[in-house]
């Protein structure tokens, strides 16, 4: 992937390079109609749509705890079974993003996002009729989760396409919607449950969810899809037809259009992303960090009850403190990566390593906090670290994959998050059931973060080796150019042209 001596975000690492001639001149690019990112313009509206998505869909799921005791009482079920409605929605929202990516490869972002917004709104509204958990699993869990997943990929990918130097602050603005919504949605749900029944609350939440249609209407492809693309065109030169490597006889000098393949015949993800070691390794890191990140919000209220000192703090206060810290620091911590000194990919990778390390230390220290005040301080600092990790992870992912494969890498990252959302609470909750204490669960989460720090250090070392190798290639190219011989290195192949 791109090294330190290249721009911070290599927007064409996966695209064909321009033709290079021995005299130092470059020919016209192979894709002359591809627009350069404007670093603004309509991109800010894409970022606004991303903010709305995270506010309406992602933050709404985080506030499910307000509904939990009401639904448990109404349905006469356990907390664990009732919470699975939220677990299914989270898993569907994250793990179905590869489907959204496959659709985005074929259709425009807006075409994919608008049906998703409708499905999410209908699913939430139909929860009005839920009289038991099975129906809620389908409407709130599967339908709302699937619909919002179809909006997630278009929101982040369209924003990334429109920005280069300001990509960090743009993506940070998108993610800021989660922090703001984490505060507002619990207040909204508490008010609705006081004034209306839980069924009517679902109906009103469904009406709010339909505002995702506004967000979907803001998404726009920087380079719109055309009726002819590389998979649909057969170029016929002379009496030879060239089509995806196959050579057959053809009518001279014509260009024909092949029938479009069905979406079912196309791969869900671009195959190149599955062979990108750095991106795959980073998604493994995300999986283990997310186990800790998602379990923190589940266990902190219980941890608060263990040492409650009667000073008027509720168990949910600790979660609110983390949310407040995240809201304050998400945008500043994301915008700092646009500073010229920090734009190098390796320095951003160092940054996320530091954030994960601080998360691990604070989680490991949590059981040693002997009173509520220390726990509040721990939670406040932890919110800063989690904010830094969350925004930087999306920026580092863009550095690793390049913008043309970002939607594929994003799908893998979100899939890993969804998988950890299913496995993590089962492990940490199981440890809590066995020990009747949160300490062992916090130790497990802290160790999970520390394992990721080690893997991140390995990833930094591998990128350093690639950076050194690339620098050697550039020096050799420059020496041969001055000597009148052009030597171009592409992998293991070498092409020489003597003048």
Automatic annotation (TrEMBL):
Comp. bias (Polar residues): 1-11
Pfam families hit by this protein: MFS_1
Domain of life the protein comes from: Eukaryota
Keywords from the UniProt entry: Membrane, Transmembrane, Transmembrane helix
Entry-linked Gene3D superfamilies: MFS general substrate transporter like domains
PROSITE patterns in UniProt: MFS
Biased composition (Basic and acidic residues): 12-24
Membrane topology of this protein: Multi-pass membrane protein
Chief location category: membrane
Domain Major facilitator superfamily (MFS) profile: 42-464
Transmembrane segments annotated in the record for this chain: 42-61, 112-131, 137-157, 169-189, 201-219, 279-300, 312-329, 349-369, 375-398, 410-428, 440-462
UniProt subcellular location: Membrane
Region of interest called Disordered, as start-end residue ranges on this chain: 1-33
Protein name (Swiss-Prot/TrEMBL): Monocarboxylate transporter 12-like
Source species: Priapulus caudatus
Gene for this chain: LOC106808599
